[in-house]
Amino acid sequence: MRATTVRLALAGDTMLGRRVARELERRPPQSLVDPELAELTRDADLFVLNLECCISERGRPVPKTFNFRAPPAAVETLLHLGVDCVTLANNHALDYGTEALLDTFEHLRAAGIAWAGAGENLEEARTPVVVGGLPILAICDHEPDFAADEARAGIAYADLRRGVPDWLRERAPGALVCPHWGPNMTPAPLPYVREAARELREAGAALVAGTSAHVFQGVEGNVLYDLGDFLDDYAVHRRLRNDLGLLFLVELEPGGPRRIEAVPLRLELAYTRLARRDEAAWIRRRFREACAAFGTEVREDDGRLVIAAN
């Protein structure tokens, strides 16, 4: 077990394809994020985000509604942010097939960025990557056709509606577990997600940080149910406001989080910055309400939302 505290930065769905990719053709990769935000992410000991696209110039789009592929220049955006690890267990990692996923591995490897939740075979996809002494696991509970097998590259898939599988339970102790779970545009976790979170806690996960909803959800103990969106070109839901998000900063001890901070964000087209005035006020109100549903108290400290360990 780790003996030290890690200051961890966590960001949600980061999609660098489609209109973001077109912006990268005419703008420097560093221009996709506000410098003040990039300073926050680079100051962390470890920065992990969910990369909701492949990085490649090859492949053909698989039959589905949305296909996301980022150009190699997107790696420079990740490096500018100080990203140490990306999670790839999601429903867009194989949008352009296996060869584009393999290209993603190569681009990340060349940049020195680790990844979790995908691999050249089933064992690689399910094996935690250890970064800074912290094991990181990623899983996805949808797109079973993207699942890796013994001879095929793909993602770590688990049908969490049937419970947490033994292989995941065995790898969870002391780990950061990043499930891509539940449907889009849901402001609170579904019952099966809460049950899976309980099972992961009981298995000994140090921290659970979910994605998939595209909007942030509440915090319950060591579970951040959904990190929301971080950088993309997505259409904005007028009520749920997926253009208003959070960057999570977690002081993670071996036994779990000591302190969780959430920094309000505003997502524009291919550009993310710190939220201002009314934007930040909306985020504060909704995050407090989302956490209160789990009995979690949120206070404010210098513009950040803070949850301290009990």
Structural commentary:
The protein has one domain: 4-Layer Sandwich (Purple Acid Phosphatase, chain A, domain 2). The mean pLDDT is 97. The longest helix is centred in the C-terminal third of the chain and has 16 residues, at 277-292. The protein has helices at 18-24, 35-43, 74-81, 97-111, 122-126, 166-171, 191-203, 277-292; strands spanning 6-14, 46-51, 54-55, 69-70, 85-87, 114-116, 118-119, 129-131, 134-140, 154-155, 176-180, 207-209, 219-220, 223-224, 229-231, 244-253, 256-268, 271-274, 299-301, 304-308. The chain is globular and about 45 Å long. The chain is α/β, with parallel strands linked by helices and 310 residues long. The strands form four sheets. Strands 1, 2, 5, 6, 15, 16, 17, 18, 19 and 20 form a ten-stranded mixed beta sheet that branches. The chain has a six-stranded mixed beta sheet with strand order 8-9-11-12-14-13, covered by helices on one side. Strands 3-4 form a two-stranded parallel sheet. The chain contains eight helices and 20 strands. 25% of the residues lie in helices and 29% in strands.
Portion in helices: 25-40%
Oligomer kind: single chain
- Report the end-to-end length measured between terminal Cα atoms: 22 Å
Largest sheet: 10 strands, mixed
**The CATH topology, please?**
Purple Acid Phosphatase, chain A, domain 2
**Which class in CATH terms?**
Alpha Beta
Strand content: 25-35%
Average pLDDT taken over every residue: 97
